[in-house]
Write a structure and sequence with these properties.
The protein is an alpha+beta fold and 347 residues long. It has ten helices and 14 strands. It starts with 8 loop residues before the first helix and ends in a 5-residue tail after the last strand.
Length: 347
């Protein structure tokens, strides 16, 4: 039927001398499989990334603050970093956020920030611990001061939450009423109706709380006139003065002086059996004045060892029942000297 094709010499040679078979090794097959898998994964990841960018899946949309929430509202902290919303979570610089929060909110001592996929930033924070209270003379408000000597907040009138913390009086720095704020509020509560209602204080109310120190006041106001609104109006409002508001983060007292005052207080209790009723701190003069429970005022110098001054005090009064002696002033500010003043004389 079909004529069989005649083999050529080349065909006969190949039949007699077959070449080696082409065999793909196991390693080569493995490499090929891995290459195909890698190409598949790369394509899938690229597609996933493109999908995420189109759908905002990894863009920050939630900021949660979790911490002490005593002097700073959690919502206020979240508001301070709200500009990161809309950014991809992997592009958020955690260290920059921490620095920003610590700089803007002095009440905060420590911050930790966590990125929680797909779109949430969580801020964990600790506020400064309160070591003392500070009051300018007897003017409200009373300020809360941290262990590092900085103001972290203030106490509302009649709030007894912090009464167990030592109270230190400092000289009042007066400013004109135009420069004075009535009551510093917690960050984030500037528009809180309760806070605003507590801050409804007139210029007259401020002047009632203190002796008028202005030139106009000295010339035109007699004793008791500060309680008379009609007579007080003769003073131009811009000349009236009020205690300056201490700002959160402001350094009021050094940590070393805080420690010295606490040691001093404990020494009076443990070695003399007497409680300190009032503590007055004069940073410029570098002095501490304390009033004991029997109303005796003791003046000490921060320029010299408080331990030595107390030792001089103990030696001087070791044979006298101090509680029964009505000293007006005891002055320990001169090294190795004790000066006393009673109702009749000073020695």
């Amino acid at each position: 039927m079909f004529k069989k094709k005649r083999k050529t010499r080349a065909d006969l040679w190949k039949e007699k001398h077959p070449g080696p078979k082409k065999v793909i090794s196991r390693h080569a097959k493995t490499r090929i499989i891995y290459a195909l898998i890698f190409m598949l994964i790369t394509a899938s990841v690229s597609g996933f990334v493109m999908l995420i960018k189109e759908t905002n899946f990894l863009k920050v949309s939630k900021i949660i603050a979790d911490g002490d929430n005593v002097f700073v509202d959690n919502s206020y902290i979240a508001d301070q970093i709200s500009d990161i919303k809309g950014k991809y979570i992997n592009e958020v610089d955690v260290e920059n956020l921490k620095s920003h929060i610590l700089e803007k909110i002095p009440q905060i001592n420590r911050v930790t920030i966590e990125k929680r996929l797909p779109n949430t930033i969580i801020v964990f924070y600790n506020e400064h611990k309160i070591s003392t209270r500070v009051q300018q003379d007897f003017n409200d408000p009373t300020y809360l001061v941290s262990w590092n000597g900085e103001v972290v907040g203030s106490v509302k009138e009649n709030d007894q939450t912090y009464d167990h913390i030592p109270l230190i009086h400092i000289p009042t720095e007066f400013v004109t009423i135009a420069q004075a704020s009535i009551f510093p509020v917690r960050p984030g509560q500037e528009n809180d109706p309760e806070i605003l209602s507590a801050n409804v204080t007139t210029q007259i109310d401020i002047d009632i709380q203190k002796e008028d120190r202005t030139i106009a006041g000295q010339d035109k106001i007699a004793i008791g006139v500060a309680f008379d609104e009609t007579k007080l109006e003769v003073i131009q409002p811009e000349l009236r003065e009020a205690p300056r508001v201490l700002i959160p983060g402001e350094l009021i007292i050094s940590t070393g002086d805080i420690d010295e005052i606490n040691i001093l207080k404990n020494k009076f209790i443990s070695e003399l059996g007497m409680n300190i009723k009032e503590i007055w701190y004069y940073d410029v003069e570098r002095e501490i004045h304390v009033t004991l429970e029997n109303s005796t005022k003791i003046k000490l110098s921060l320029e010299f060892s408080l331990d030595n001054q107390i030792e001089n005090f103990i030696v001087r009064f070791k044979d006298e029942p101090l509680k029964e002696i009505e000293y007006k002033i005891i002055d320990l500010r001169v090294p190795y000297k004790v000066f006393t003043c009673n109702k009749n004389s000073c020695l």
